[in-house]
């Protein structure tokens, strides 16, 4: 192998990079173990809060020292392996900005126009039916028709708008409405992005979905789903407040510190910082480090003056209880001090005491900064807000801001924000700035201060420049905050999924068990079948898993339960490359070549089939990633990365190991005595049996079609819309008993029709877990409807518990292991989108693979045979799911995971086809005088060993996941198992014979011509 030294260097560098990336995960786990040890000393109901207090305390402190760089816990957390909601528990929310509300807000009083109301109805109906491609275009077209051609500009003319006049054409207004809609979506996205920082979760994710009005929010580990729903859907509240200067408030703050000290002296209690430090020491952290990790509260000399303490920023909790948590050293402008996130609750509690409150001005209000400042170790500033209006409201709100943009300052390299207000805002802004020259005005969104710029002069023209030591990104963020006041309506939740932490932990356990079992089985299979070479491939396989995990972490990919299945499946597919190579080497050895030459030629001749097989699987992985969401994307990510790393390991690592063995001992074996001639001398005439295969295939298709039209499919909530719950009981229950109770409860409601009364109830794993799917009020995605559905189900199922479970316990498994483990809500619009995405994804995969095969093999007949076999495989899996749902003891639901299975099988099955086609192409070149039938049969027979071995290793891994991977993905894995078996048979009995028939027919046609 050429460039052997370079390959070794690359392998070593990749290994080091993966070790570096994975080390952060192990470090965060260590810190979290210390936090758990600290929390263990508290009462059970306080342990969760105590553990979070510990982690908040250390998030901005160095916990990992690599010598050349120190990393804080927060930085380590950002670099660790991300776990998906199905493994960690949490919430996945899809929100949609209602374009209807945006248009109505822009129209103002004109929204009462009869033609306007009717046009909105037409656009809504088109959106609901799925026939709309653009809401604004539908609305403008409908209004023009319904108003008999009246200019639509009449609806939107306003004194505050200069871009729409009575002379504006409908096309111009349509462009402006689309622009305003995009701005509203962007502003909603920015508001949501700022809000998720306050949910107390790590590694949140927010993504604006392209070409839609939707925003996806993922919050792993969130503990209060209803609070999340309320906060995400709340209207943005942007306000401008006058402030107190820190110097004005410091005397009162100092008096408050003394008062709190006196009160604590009368009722002494152990300082939490001390207890935390002791717990950290108990957990194995050095005492000096533990003190720094817990609160960073220095021990000031008891004789030090208050002034010295303020200057140095060192306070003892017993001497300065308020200043120990709210450090006045960082006061300035409207900020009166700064505190660590872990201490913010203590500050709030201190300042809320009636006696302390009386020390401050009656019109003062305290508000925290939106995020910690990295320049002061992540502390949060506390601002003194001045309430200057009789009604206690902000003097000015965000509705007056017409535009805010970021730009570079005229001097220097810093950035600034330009803000423009309407006429009403300009007048009030002029008064506010004129009365507060030299003071700060706080910009507050949703109760948090984003900026508090100092007023340099009176601003009476409505055009302001907000300057400071901003980077361009910071200026952009502030401009986004200012623009958020223009959001005419909040985004609404159209889909949400809640996974309880207990089910998440069970998924981790099941996933790890299946992973280990499958891994061991594959290692044994290869070692036992291919002897020394097999054990070398096992080393390459171990390297592959290591590299795969490292790459996942470095890319920030999210590991889900289907993702673990993807890793295990990748292991089975990684063996495929080694099998192809080894079978090729064995053929070269049987042909009389020496060992070194056989190894060289074996690898060379295997490259074509390996590359083609991997590329076709990557194509389906890309389609999966584009059209899938959540766990399906996690599966696609691990599949694509796994294919790339397995290719590297099979081609380079395995060869390095084999050549090292040969160089050291002069010999290596590629089989055992019993496996040496496995399927080597087969002489089956597969082409002669093609008509029988066609007949069986047609019969299976007929059965599938009959079942499809007679029974249909067990469609999941993703495709029908509705709500799905997995509910755990404290004792075994029967599905029929649960169904009767639920349907009886829903039948008592007047608005429940027959379809919504009927509920699907199935056992989900253990006998005390049931999955309930209902379409009651499925077209209403409001929180009120969700609460009503959950209340009905609770009332129906409460008698089935052996204890008095409360509604809150039933809804939230944080406090009770029983109740709702997972909850899915999918509105009709997104269900329709998912249905079409599923259809498109399968079609695109088949077309893309067909085009690739045509390109690689230069004949459309090859592509036709391959595509026909893949389509048969996919349709038969659908047929089997139709025939057997409700009959097998596990869930055969057609959902997003099922579509992922179909696409995966399309990508996997084409591997077999490509290997056979590649051998046929080779034989046609080597033996041009032989007839086509002989070459085709010989090619199939010569690759039979590889086909059976590859399918065998893949089936071994899939069976391990099927039996040990948990109920969540059992149906998904069942589809893969069927697909592997059918795909292997279809390659031999359908894909190749169809290609043969088409080529024979073409040859006859050419002869006749």
Give a written overview of the molecule:
The chain has an 8-stranded antiparallel sheet with strand order 5-6-4-17-22-19-21-20. Strands 7, 8, 9, 10, 11, 14 and 15 form a 7-stranded antiparallel sheet that branches. Strands 12-13-16 form a 3-stranded antiparallel sheet. It has 1009 residues and is α+β, with helices and mostly antiparallel strands. The protein has 35 helices and 22 strands. α22 (595-627) runs antiparallel to α30 (828-857), α26 (735-747) packs across α28 (783-797) and α32 crosses α33 (932-942).
User: What is the CA–CA distance across the termini?
Assistant: 49 Å
Give the averaged pLDDT, no decimals. 82
Tally the helices: what do you get? Answer: 35
Q: Helix share of residues?
A: 55-70%
State the strand order across the main sheet. 5-6-4-17-22-19-21-20
Q: What is the tally of beta strands?
A: 22
Integer-rounded radius of gyration = 33 Å
- Beta strand %: 5-15%
Q: Tell me the overall shape.
A: globular
Largest sheet: 8 strands, antiparallel
Low-confidence stretches: 269-312
By helix and strand content, what is the structural category? alpha+beta
